[in-house]
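Build the 3D complex.
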Amino acid sequence: MEVSSAKGVSPPHLRHDGRRAATFIAPALTIYLLIIMAPTVATVWISFTEWRGIGDSPEFVGLDNYRHLFRSDTFWGSFNRTLGILAVGGLLVFFFSFLFTMLLREMRAKKFLRAVLFFPNVVPPVALAIAWGVLLAPRNGLLNGFLEAIGLDFATRTWLAPDIIFRSVIAGLVWIYTGFFVTILMAGVDRIPKHFYEAADLEGASSRQKLFRVTLPLTWDVLSVAAVLWVITAIKTFEFIYAFGGSGTDPSIATWTLPVQVYAVALGNRSPIFALGQGSAIAVVMVVLVGFLVVLIRRIMHRRVVEF
Amino acid sequence: MINKRDGRRPLWLIFVAALLTLALVAAGCGNDDDSDSGTASVPEATEAPTSDAMEEPMEPTEEPGDDMEEPMEPTEEPRDDMEPDEDNTLRYFSMWNEGEPQQEVLQGIIDSYEEDTGVDVDVLWAGREVLTSVRAALSAGDAVDLIGFEAEPLAGALVNTGETHPLGSLLDHEIPGEDVTVGEVIPESFLDIYAVDGEPHIIPYIVNSSGIHYDARRLAEFGLERPETWDEFIETALAAGDNAVQHDGLINFYNAYWLYWLILRHGGPGSFNAAAADPTGDLWRSDYIRAAVEDLVELVESGALADGYEGSNWPIAQQEWANGNGTFNINGTWLASETASYSSEGFEYRLLPFPTTEGGYESAEVYQIGWVVPEAADSPTAAQEFIAYALNSERLSGMVDVAKNLVPRSDIGVPPELQDAVDMLAASPAGHRPYDGVQGDYPEYWVEFMQLDDQLFFGQIGADEFIDEMAETTSNYWANQ
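Done.
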């Protein structure tokens, strides 16, 4: 096993030739700036304006949109729900992902089972959300019907009631995304040479010890990327939440997260507000949140790269 | 890669700086051209009356909507007549989805209009979030000539902000194929609700209302009489079997029906709007609000609402109601057509006007679906000509016969299922806007209200806490404006 610094050294042919490098970088950089950076900068600018975006002109209002947001219970509700998905959903997603990764690692039909787990990711989230609505309906819902059929009447609930609905949303998201992260983690686990596990077996290591002494250290870089992906996914998840709780209607405010609120405030909904400036301020909060958490995760999870 | 040591200019930095500058300039100045194109000052809808205005409950006969707006200054003179358009295409954004009966009726009208006039109608069946599509089109600089949607969101998103064309001149326009004008067949009372500066901005083609729907056969099975007062309603619901009041609680604005109606029964038309518009929030502590809130708490605590109503996702509750697993459902008058395909055999649709309260007020909701012509329309004349064409009694009758809706023309028939609604509208001493105009006038406040209303309706908070929270929310809302 060889350990090297994460910081690479530029090959000689790329040194001392900034102009040529700029020429190669320019096309990709141009596209990136136009498609990613320019809208982001524009969004920041709009967040300092009062603008409906429907034929009127933006009026600079400084930090008013942010002041307004931070005094709004609706915003803090959406913010806390977003953090709920991020933290609670994240713990559950990674717990189940590791569990399935460990279970699948030694199974013969692991490719098939991995595909089964991944399946929710290829179905449109809106369709999944509607299916979950049917599953969790209070009367005649499939889940309550199943619980009653097996004699667990006491376990039936109004799964979409205001005090439970967001837990149901998180359960749905965990179900969808676990397969995705199992696929990522397994890609990392699959490249670990078998002789590490054989050596661990010979030395009498338990499953737990193999997880913490072999699997985790050798997949740390994959895990770090997966954590960043989860942060981005959790904060921007929209369609599933939007359609959760029924089709053809606005999403219940009890399920609003930051992206749903951006949509409701800035762009649409049945009874639109068209506060593009305020919606942009929420979007900026999302970007800051993602940026902060990604930097935090990268710092916390920073390790020297292990090569094997 | 930049090698600073060789002293060469870092080209990519210049490139980045140039693009960022371009983005900022584009964001900041991209709409300067629009500054002279008809944007209006904030409408008077956002100017709240003082709490003193509500020391006495409102007169029921007061014009709904009058409290909402002192019309804005029009930025250009309204047209005296309809001038020919340069373009021969009419771009129409509609709230209906393809396959809905209303869409099919309108498609038939569009087809014959194109054939009769040679105008090409480019229609987008956008569904209920049609204004999202409108917004995208307008912000991209694409013209929209005609929008058909519910009047309240139209008022909140476009009319109140001065982004629609005044349609006063259309009233004198003769309806093709008939010897009458638009103004002669559409009642002034409907047009006045969303009038700005005396001119209508929304022309309705469907008129709905709301109330409590019931299956008369089921009520008879229980040997019960149709209730008239709130106390009778609670009593009847408790005697009408399990899950008597079916309700889809995941729709926030359905939940709001109960409290809005109760406030208007106790305080009169305009009283809910006045409470929302009170910058001090003190009107929420008025007697009529407290009486309404306590009535709602009585319903919640009575056990008449169906089990799990707080987590019922549309359209489950109304399906159960139509299948005979419930007696009452508060909803719009579209419920009959919406549930017709799955209602149980022998189901007898009836509509109960919202129960009256002792010493309270009577009024009926006037829920219009209509057309507006955006101020920035390319073909405003074609749009108005289409409106006049579609209001022809023969063409509009499809909305009654096929779509089972009420229409604003009294000389067109009524679907049998909606006779109660017609009687209710005719008998009512006054009309009011849906949700008393709060949804349309203060859409952002409406979101705050619905969250607290949900908590009250789901029994999570009591009357005192709700009133305190609403008073605080209202004063905070106005402090932030």
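Residues 1-81 of chain B have pLDDT under 50 and may be disordered.
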